[in-house]
Design a protein that fits this description.
alpha/beta, Rossmann fold, 7-stranded parallel sheet, 13 strands, globular
């Protein structure tokens, strides 16, 4: 296998951390980029980077791209905002980059109601800057994170990539839909491959503290009530992190149909789970009942997600393997160890 140098944005984030680790394990070189913002606990982000061999004092350095220093043998980390349209091109100019995996974004549906400008900066301007760098520095393939949120409140399940997604119900979802349109335009105009991955509710060890898995586990262990929206009448296609990473890596480094430059794939477990059943699995893993605060539907939230992954399965032999019981148990074990 030919060794590649791959830029992974959002490398201190949940999925970016795992993708970087897997690429390193496969023998590739990784340039990790992240702005380490304070949307959630930065200590968790620094701890992920430490697992990749990047210590906190190294990660906090705002590096000069012309004299960038590599940490470790094949992992390099750069602290930077994607929306910095002056510095990002310098990174591409001063490094030989073969592939780009853009996992950096302002995440979270509910936070987009509070701070919409953060989504415009990172998800729109930042993504445009990535596209411009791919265009100007001859990057042949860009894999980027989209989201199941683009499907809105569609009742046409399982969600298929061919479905109409013109009705997002959160700004976060709208920015992800915009990313797909922008990628299509750049593939059409400039002839490089763009692969969008619509992630479905990713969970697992080292996960984000704003996600249900983390929130529920933390609350139950600490005898606090959990917020159960829509009185629990929700279902999600919960997808374990290992299954997500296998799909990301396949689309990033395996040969693909080069005649079609613009591609979109659902990447999920394709086994929706009712929210109350998910909570029950967490209760069993912790061996403790949850205190449930039953609440109405949240603005911007969707009632169900369910991925049709046949397209990714056909083209990349994608096979999600982790059921919710095993995935929840793995997360709870990690949580107890990480927080003593």
């Amino acid at each position: 296998m030919e060794t590649k140098t791959i830029l992974v944005t959002g490398a201190a984030g949940f999925i970016g951390f795992y993708v970087s680790k897997q690429l390193l394990d496969l023998g590739h070189n990784v340039i990790g980029l992240d702005n380490i913002n304070d949307y959630y606990d930065v200590n968790l982000k620094y701890a992920r980077l430490a697992e990749l061999g990047i210590q906190r004092d190294q990660a906090e350095i705002e590096l000069n791209m012309s004299s960038s220093t590599a940490f470790g043998d094949r992992m390099q980390f750069i602290k930077m905002n994607l929306e910095d349209r002056d510095t990002l091109p310098n990174l591409f100019a001063s490094h030989t980059i073969d592939l780009v995996c853009n996992l950096a974004a302002q995440a979270g549906v509910r936070y987009s109601l509070e701070n919409p400008n953060a989504y415009a900066d990172s998800n729109l301007i930042g993504f445009l800057n990535i596209l411009e760098c791919c265009r100007n520095y001859n990057i042949n393939r860009l894999v980027y994170a989209s989201s199941s949120s683009v499907y809105g409140n569609s009742d046409d399940v399982p969600f298929s990539e061919s479905a109409n997604v013109d009705h997002p119900i959160s700004l976060y979802a709208a920015t992800k839909k915009a990313n797909e349109l922008m990628a299509h335009t750049y593939s059409h105009l400039y002839g490089f491959e763009t692969i969008g991955l619509r992630f479905f509710t990713v969970y697992g060890p080292w996960g984000r503290p704003d996600m249900a898995m983390f929130l529920f586990t933390d609350a139950i262990i600490n005898d606090k009530p959990i917020k159960v929206f829509n009185n629990g009448d929700l279902s999600r296609d919960f997808t374990y992190i290992d299954d997500i990473v296998s799909g990301v890596i396949s689309t990033l480094i395996e040969p693909s149909d080069s005649s079609q430059l613009y591609k979109l794939y659902n990447i999920g477990n394709s086994q929706p789970v009712k929210l109350l059943d998910y909570i029950e699995a967490i209760e069993k893993a912790i061996d403790k009942p949850a205190i449930k605060d039953m609440l109405p539907m949240q603005p911007g939230d969707v009632k169900q997600t369910y991925a049709n992954v046949s397209k990714l399965k056909t083209q990349y032999d994608y096979q999600p393997k982790t059921d919710v019981k095993a995935g929840v148990s793995a997360f709870v074990t990690w949580y107890k160890k990480y927080y003593n």
